[in-house]
Amino acid sequence: MKKNSLLVLVSLTLLSACATVPNEDGTQSARVDPFERMNRSTSKFNDKLDDIVLQPAARLYVNITPSFVQTGIGNFFGNINDIWTAANSFFQGNVEDGFTDVMRFSVNSTFGFLGVLDIASEGGLSKHRKDFGQTLGVWGVPNGPYLVLPFYGPSVMTDALAMPVDYYADVWSYERPIALKNTGTVLRLVDKRAGYLDASTLLEDAALDKYVFTRDAYLQRRASQINAAKDAEQDREDEAAIKKQNEEEMATENKAP
């Protein structure tokens, strides 16, 4: 299911990217990607690293690891991510999502064998994915220019600045002994890369300029995430205003003779 969802996502993004081709004079590219030359060089380095190390490791992982074990590994680290997601939900003012995230972590950690089983999703508790870069965007901090970071990949200035916060807020970064933490970190990375194997093949076959597509897709996705969070915040404010107005009207009617 995860692989099918990724394929659909890439396919839809390819179609939408065709409608957002940069202007012939390069003004759009210069505005969102002023460091394009450096970013392209970094992107080539990352692609080489992926071809030589990450992609072969991910394919080996998929070939030798039973699917239910892969699912359990993904669930385990996803459960850990729910802790920081919950914090960012509260930072963004989304108390409902925040309590859902807390409940997810509690249920999966208790009844799902430390998150290996995703009991919460089966129980109707939706999973969210939020980080501090998204929170800064909701707070009104501009994304800044597009960046490609060595070893990490697509980003924007705000997300790059938020990365240390995301790292130190990750519970796994405090796991001990160090050997266990490092092993888990590598396993987490390989499992995540394995989920994009089919999608990356589709991207290679379909994209005329892989760099431009990746950049546009990342920026569109990031803008969509931030706008969705802002819209949710506006909906809560509107509901609170309507509730207050109704209470005032009821109070006025009760005072009337």
Structure description:
The longest helix has 46 residues. The N terminus is likely disordered. Strand 1 and strand 2 form a beta hairpin. 74% of the residues lie in helices and 3% in strands. Helix 7 packs across helix 11. It is mainly α and 257 residues long. 23% of the residues are buried. The protein has one domain. It has a two-stranded antiparallel sheet with strand order 1-2.
CA radius of gyration: 21 Å
Structural class: mainly alpha
What is the rounded distance between the termini?
A: 63 Å
How many strands, which pairing sense, and closed or not: the largest β-sheet? 2 strands, antiparallel
Level of helix content?
over 70%
Element pattern in H and E:
HHHHHHHEEHHHH
Approximate strand percentage: under 5%
* Uncertain spans: 1-25
C-alpha geometry: globular
Q: How many strand units?
A: 2
Mean pLDDT, all residues: 85
Tally of alpha and pi helices: 11
Count of individual domains: 1
Strand arrangement within the widest β-sheet reads 1-2
SSE diagram, text form:
Blueprint: H1 2-17, H2 27-32, H3 36-64, H4 67-91, H5 95-111, H6 119-122, H7 132-138, E1 146-149, E2 153-156, H8 157-169, H9 178-194, H10 197-206, H11 210-255
Antiparallel strand pairs: 1-2
Quick overview of this protein structure:
This protein has helices at residues 2-17, 27-32, 36-64, 67-91, 95-111, 119-122, 132-138, 157-169, 178-194, 197-206, 210-255; strands spanning 146-149, 153-156. It has 257 residues and is mainly alpha-helical.
